[in-house]
Each structure stands twice: as structure tokens, then as C-alpha cells.
Amino acid sequence: MFNYTEAVGFLVQASSSDSSGANKIAFLFLFAGFVFYGIMFLRYRNVNKRHHHESDTKSRTANIQAGDTFVHSRTGVTDSNMPGANNKQFNGKLWGLF
Amino acid sequence: MVRTDAESKDGLTKCGRCGATEISLNIETGNLRCGFCRFEMQSPNALQTYGLDGDVSMLTGIVVGSGSDNIVPSTDLVLTFKCSACGADVVIDSANSTQARCHWCRNTLSMNEQIPNGAVPDMILPFKLPKDVAVAKIKEFVGKRMAFAHPTFKAEFNAENVMGVYLPYMVFDANAHVALAGQGEHQTRSYTVKRGDDDVRLYDADVYDVRRDFSLYIDDLTVESSSERRDQNVMRNSNNIINAIMPFDVENSVCYDSNYLTGFTSERRDTNLDDLTGVAAAQSKDIARYRANEMVTFYDRGVRWDDEQLHLVGQRWVSAYLPVWLYSYYETKSSGKSFVHYVAVNGRTGETMGSVPINQRKLLLVAAGVELLGIIAFLLFFFLVGG
User: Fold this and answer.
1) CA atoms of B119 and B133, how far apart (whole Å)
2) Cross-strand bridge partners of residue B206
């Protein structure tokens, strides 16, 4: 017998960031149509494509000076990455959808 | 300012051997070739000729090629030249070309001297990729995207309609000082704990205040200098496609000669340096962030830069025409709105990118089918594993 509450609970668990790999696959099944549409849209329209000026432009550095100071330790955090990290974000792209 | 048209002359550019004006690019050699006697003329490298290739680390102040000078709005785009062969008046519409044929004696007149309307750049990078190769690349690119392509597009697609276009860009060199400050995290431990029935992964990390100061030398950052091409809102146009086929080997550009445009079309620069400085500075900051990542590898959980300063000690601007093979398709949607799709091929490297109109009805139908199968798979999974 299909239990709606259990199914919703399973769905919420599957969508959470710390869910297991099997649950994530289940979550992917549920949105397979949307994922397929998105992949095909990007493949045909390529709206996410741009020149990677940050890596493709010739550049070099010199006179590097570093100064790092220990502040504190954090324990038991659930995020695998630093919250608010922006060292891999690039803002000089010309278009605005992504 | 560095004068880049001091040796240039408007009017008839004659073959050094036979005197004919029927001169065009030989893509195979990259030289200009006389259409009558096949004599080939090699144009000098622009950056070397004008001394614009000096060491970026020694750059101070602002160095600008004269072809990058501000556009004076009142400057005429349609110019009249006197044909020195027969004396007739010949009109050149510099918005679309810098050449015209004399309607009396059939000689070709060229506009090579710079006037402040953005039509004549400092340098030009000639096409290297032949049209047939570009056509094959476009066919291959579109051929892989036919399953969900719009039926009208499928019926009308003809890669032979590709056009060779010289598009206007600004090439920017910078000698900059960068100062970055923020916080970074280094992971010290990763472990799993039980919470109810679930295993949860947790992390310990050390937090540091991070500071990096360095000199950054940027060589040949290339930005669009046509206002139409700079608009890269993908909801309105597919200009991002043309952006995506960069970079170009701009260091191989040659001194501008209108004869390189024979058989191709061109777009005029309509943007001044003041309007491009913001984009160049923002992209330079991105390059600084990218290079700084090599200096903060210890912070494996990431770095949050809170303060980023980029001081331009020296900058150099050179305007250029760069070669693009462009296939364009004008789609009129059922709503009456129109959208221009491009498939672009880099005229030097062959890098190809494109936008293909989609048969939305077919794609939605197939996506609905996939969704249905996905829901069935999810329910099976739920009953077998979750339930």
C-alpha cells in the first residue's frame, strides 16, 4: 500500500545534502524529465557558454607577498566547502543568465 | 598615443609588381595576393611595427593606438574619395566596409587612414581557416543537434551561407598591482557520526586571515568593442556564442590594410575606451582571482576575498579586427518575436560554438515521457529500498 507521508519523508531525505548516494539517485529519477529538458536545452542553445577570460588570457605574476594569520578552529560543520567562498567566482562575464 | 596609420594612404592600393588594384587575402599563406599576376605581399606584424609588444611589466600610464581613439559622433560614415585612376567620385560606406569599386574604371579604392568613426582599426588578424573547413565544422556541429532542432530550421539550414566577418575588438595589456584580503579555511579532519538512523559527514577546519599582494601582468585580454556584440543577454540574443569562440592569436595581427577585407564583411567599432575600461578592469580582477588560486592551495575548503584592490600601473589598448566565420539564422517565434541564432567558427583556430533553434513541442513531449519513466523508477526504488 502506498504511504504518502513515508514517500514525502523519503523525498525530503533524498534531497538533503547529507543523503546517501542511493537516495540521490532516487531523487534524480523523480526529476528525470526536467533534467533531460535542461541538458538538451543547454546542448542546443549553449546559453551557458562563454569565453573563459580568467584562464584563457595570458598572464603572469611576480613579487608575491603573503601574510596569513590563524584566527580560530571550527568543528563539526556539515558543509564540505567554506560558506561564502568566492575564490572560484568570476564576475567580469558579459552575460547575465548564469 | 601611438600613430598606427602614418604610412597608410587612402585610394588605390596597387600591386607592387603589375599595378592592379585587385588584391585580396590568400588564406593559405596569410599574405595579400594580386588577382592578376598572383604576386604576394606580406604585411608586417602590427605589434612589432608599432612597438606595441613591449614588456608588459615595464608598462606605465596609458598607451593607446591611434585606431583606438575616441569616436567623434559627428564624423561621417559615408565618405567620398576621388579615384586617382579616372577622377570619378567614389563613395565608401564605412559602416559596412572600408573598400568600394570605382563604377567607371572598376579599380578598387581602399580607406586606410584613420578618421574618428571607428572604421579603421590599428591592426587586423587575417583569416587562416578556409571557408570549406568552416562549412564542414558548422555542418558537423549542427548535425549533432538535429534530433530536437526546429523543423523550419532543419528545412532551411544551409551551412554554405556562412559569412566571413571581421569583428571589432579591443586588445588590452595591463601592468597591475593586486592586493587581496579575506579569510580561508583549511580542513583538518573529516569524519562520520550517527544521527538517528543516518550517517552524517562532518568536518573540522582552521580559519585564517589571508592576504596576498602581487604584481599581475596581463597580455592580450580581448574585449568586444561593438555595442551590439557586447550585449550578451541570452534572453535577447546569442552573442555569447561569438564570445565563446575566443581566444584569438592576436599577437600575429598585421598592420591594417583594407585589402584584407576583400570578400569578407566587417563591423565598425562604436565603443570608446571609457566604456570598455570597466569591463577590462572587472575581467582583470577575475584573472587576479584565478592566479591567486595558485597561491592559496593550502585553503582546500575555499577562500572568501572580502577586499580586492587592483591598481593599474600601466595599460595599453589596441583596436583590432578579428576573423569569424558566422552562420546566422533568423527565427520568428509563434509569439511574433524574433531571435537570431549564430553558429560561429573562429577564423584562426576553428573553435566552433552555436545556438540551434529548438522544436519545443517535441522536446517537451520527450521530456514528459522521460519524466513518466523517472517517476515509475522512483516509486520502484521507494518500494524496494525506502519503503
Assistant:
1) 29
2) A73, B186
Find the helix packing angle between B360-381 and A21-30, rounded to 10°: 140
Predicted TM-score of the model (pTM): 0.87
Does residue A13 carry a pLDDT above 70?
no
Q: Do B381 and A26 touch (CB under 8 A)?
A: yes
Residues A32 and B373: beta-carbon distance below 8 Å: yes
Q: For chain B, how many helices (H) and strands (E)?
A: 7, 17
Residue A4 banded pLDDT, cuts 50, 70, 90 = low
Is A16 near chain B, with CB under 8 Å? no
Cross-strand bridge partners of residue B318: B171
Statement: residue A44 has pLDDT above 90: yes
Indicate the residue type of B40: E
The Cα-based distances of B258 to B4, B31, B114, B286 in angstroms read 14, 13, 12, 35
A60: closest chain B residue by CA: B217
Q: Tell me the three state secondary structure of residue B89.
A: strand
Question: Which grid coordinates belong to B317?
Answer: 589598448
The pLDDT of residue A98 is: 43
> B355 and chain A: CB distance < 8 Å anywhere?
yes
Q: Are B355 and A45 in contact (CB under 8 A)?
A: yes
Whether residue B358 is predicted with pLDDT greater than 70 in this model: the reply is: yes
Q: Could you give the CA distance from residue B192 to residue B31 in angstroms, rounded to a whole number?
A: 66
- Between CA B26 and CA B30 the distance in angstroms is 6
Q: Supply the pLDDT for residue A97.
A: 45
Considering only the beta carbons, identify the residue of B183, B358, B368 that sits closest to A44: B358
B119's grid cell: 572604421
Residue carrying the nine cell digits 507521508: A5
Which residue has better confidence, B359 or B109?
A: B359
Residues 163-202 of B with CB under 8 A from A: 183-185, 188, 198-202
Contact B219, A59 (CB under 8 A): yes
d(CA B44, CA B84): 26
Cβ–Cβ below 8 Å for B354 and A46: yes
pLDDT of residue B77: 65
Q: How far is CA B331 from the centre of its chain?
A: 23
Q: What is the ipTM of this complex?
A: 0.85
Per-residue pLDDT tens digits for B230-265:
888 888 899 999 999 999 999 999 998 888 988 888
Residue type, A43: R
